[in-house]
Amino acid sequence: MTGTASASLYAGCAAISVAWTVLVLVVGRGAAARPPALAVAAVAAWAGIVALTPETPLSGFAGLAEVARSAVWFAVLLLLCRRLTATGGAVLLRGLGALGLGATLLAVVSLLPAVAGATGTWGLGTALVLGRPALAMLVVLVAENLYRNAPEEARWHVVLPCIALGGLAAFDLVLYADAALSGGFSDVLIDARAVLTALAAPLLAIAAVRDRRASREAPVSRELVFHGATLLTAGTFLLGAGVVGEALHRFGGPWAGAAQVGLLAGAVMTLAVAVSARSVRSRLRRLVVDHFFRDRYDYRREWLRCVATLSAPDAEASAEVRAIRAVADSADSPAGVLLLRDPGDAPSDAPALSWAGSWNLPSTPFALPCGHALALALRDGTWVARPGAGEFPELRSVYGPVWLAVPLTHHREGLLGVVLLSPPRARFVPDGEAFDLLRALGREVAMFLAERRAAQRVADAERIQAYAGRFAFVAHDVKTVATQLNLLLANAEANIADPEFQQDMLLTVGAAARRIETLIARLRAPEEGGVPSAARIQPLARLRQLVARRPCPVLLEADDMEGVLVAMAPEAFDAAVTHLLDNAVEASSPDRPVLVRVLRDGGMIRVDIVDRGAGMSAAFLRDVLFRPLASSRPEGNGIGAWQARELLRRAGGDLVARSVPGAGTTMRMTMPVEDPPPAAAAPARETAGAEA
């Protein structure tokens, strides 16, 4: 009686063995991984052939595959003996090799008639009973001698291959012994070989990893190993479900079919739930890392992940949440809390820390007072705190169990904050490698938060500077309005009874009030960088109006530029010209009037304001003239020239000063010409005539 095999069990064993073969080659790398991979590949080939011929699992091609599998195991063990045992055992190895070769040939010869179709079965007492059991006995003998004769320091590398291959060969002996005693092969033992072989294959993969650890570390994709282990675990689980289903099929009653279907559906559902659960994946990843890699972490992957987390946009998550995740993800922690020092507090050994953000924990404000025991423990940032069950009850009452406290230490700011982590999904005891990584990540997160605070301070300073600039502009314009009102008040004493003066006074006061309201509005709202599309002026017409209002004579020379437009707000143009005219008039003597010359230079309008005053030196022009809040006059505030240049630059123009000491100064304004659209040309000329 030859017995029959379960095709599904052997097919599952073949699939799992193929996956383990690939995993051994990927994880082991190098020549050390080839013998274990060859042993598992032989198992895959044998199981696949048995799955194709389940009616004759011990004869024909299945029998030849079994002999080849046992021969490969025997050769792998001999190779390990040659690598690890003393040189004096070479004679023994040659003798064992000869015996193995003889047993293999004997088993093959006994199977040739069945392969050729001469006989479909074999009887007990034939040479087969002597061939394959003898080969299995040799495998057990070599495995036992390999482990016993290997040096003490080398047994760690050979114990798993000896257990896996020697154990499977010993089970083959049990199978043949049972057949010899009972007169036939047991179907249960034949099917059990597939299950035991699938369970023993991982031992060879672990042996390959141990050989790799003893040599140079090779770069291995952890994600590939993890996904491979996931597939192997799922396959093993489904194989177990298949074993139970096969038992139900053979020993069950009328309900066996329904039980098989329910078992398969339940197994698939259980597998789907397990694969989708992060806690299960974390435990599997932890198991793979602990047994297949020398280092717990892939530092390149951890660094890239930390950089990607911290550099993510604020729209995805706040900076505080990203800071927590950058630390928590490396420790496989599902939640955390960030406590930070107040930006206004000075650095200290144990600063007060307050709640800044939560990830998957309550957003409950909480503060650690200055000098708290946790801050004192983390003040130098050289270690990661692991609070005990009874420590810091005030934290546990608010945020639940605290597993680790990671310090955020900055090289200049000191202890910037603390990240409190919840227990990991897959519990493990953190070692020195984990603490080193968390400390490094804590320093990186502290740098990230410190840079954000510095950027915030710079942004605040820029806003304050912009407000100060607007205030300086307003203050200078208010000074101009005050000068006009003082002049009006001085003339009022002599001309208050004149009706024309009264009318002019009302107009002047109204214009001053409107000007002050405009300045207040400018102070409240920031000025736009560009020029509104409707802000178009005729510079020559505006200059004529400004010159006509001057109390002292100002000469105006201009080319024919009627209808030429400039993209600049009227208030900005008037303010710039008024500042420059005031400075020119103050620098000139009454008998030397100021000259305003307007020319068109290609696509630019050039306005020169020329005075015949004392002039300025080259150093003054370079270092003082256009610097805000710098003035050579006691009553000046150093804003006029700087404001005029800023207003012109916002409109696309510029202001350049040319001066010779003792000969006077020329302030040259340049502005780009704005060509009006054809439909707007006629209204523009009408407006120019009205202003004239």
From TrEMBL:
ATP-binding as a keyword of this entry, yes or no, is yes
Q: Does the keyword Hydrolase apply?
A: no
* Transmembrane portions of the chain: 6-28, 35-52, 58-80, 92-116, 122-143, 155-176, 188-209, 224-243, 255-277
Q: Which reactions appear under catalytic activity for this entry?
A: ATP + protein L-histidine = ADP + protein N-phospho-L-histidine
Which domain of life does this protein belong to? Bacteria
Q: What class of enzyme is it?
A: transferase
> Where are the annotated segments for Disordered?
666-692
The Gene Ontology terms for molecular function here are:
ATP binding; phosphorelay response regulator activity; protein histidine kinase activity; protein kinase activator activity
Enumerate the UniProt keywords alphabetically. Answer: ATP-binding, Kinase, Membrane, Nucleotide-binding, Transferase, Transmembrane, Transmembrane helix, Two-component regulatory system
Q: Which GO biological process categories is it annotated with?
A: osmosensory signaling via phosphorelay pathway
Write down the PROSITE patterns for this protein, in alphabetical order: HIS_KIN
Catalytic activity, EC: 2.7.13.3
Q: What is this protein called?
A: histidine kinase
Q: What is the lineage of its organism?
A: Bacteria, Pseudomonadati, Pseudomonadota, Alphaproteobacteria, Acetobacterales
Gene designation per UniProt: prsK
